[in-house]
Amino acid sequence: VKGCNNQYIKFLNQNGGYSFWLFESFGNKETGIGIGTLIDSTNKLLDLGAESRSELSVYSKIPQPYKQYINDLIVSQDVYLYRNAQWEKIFVKSNSVEIDNVKKAYSVNLQLDLNYRFNPSLLWSN
Fold first, then answer.
1. I want to staple 23 with a disulfide (CB 3.0 to 4.6 A). Which of 28, 36, 54, 60 is the partner?
2. Helix, strand, or coil here: 64?
3. Which stretches within the chain are classed as H helix?
């Protein structure tokens, strides 16, 4: 372990078991997107609120013998982040890893969706 800015991730691998990887660094990104407005029956503007997104970027240098772990992670449908002494379900976004058999290590940057349930919108969907 290098430093104190680590993220521990558990994921379902292609063999049907779970694998774990400690990423050395991470960053968070919060995004708010306004939904829009409409005019109500009294001719006043009504703000419909916003959609909120929370993303996690994780970084690691992966030695060549372990490259299959990352290949499994970017296609896994069961991924968890260890935070606050428990495993939280997260979702893999569109990621890719370029494999070059000459390299001894790979710098990996993955984007993950934290899928928080915070939605400051006036619209509901079923």
1. 60
2. helix
3. 67-73
Per DSSP, the three-state class of 69 is helix
Q: Which of 70, 53, 56 shows the shortest CA–CA distance to 25?
A: 56
| Helix, strand, or coil (residue 65) | helix
Per-residue pLDDT of the chain (126 residues; tens, 9 = 90+): 566 778 999 999 999 999 999 999 898 888 888 888 888 889 888 888 777 788 899 998 888 888 899 999 999 999 999 988 999 999 998 887 777 777 788 888 899 988 766 666 666 554
Sign of the CA dihedral with 81 first, then 71, 111, and 104 last: positive
Q: What is the pTM of this model?
A: 0.74
**48 vs 121: CA distance, rounded Å:** 6
Could you tell me the end-to-end alpha-carbon distance of the chain, in angstroms, rounded to an integer?
43
Question: What are the DSSP calls for 20-39, one per residue?
Answer: EEEESEEEEEEEEEE--EEE
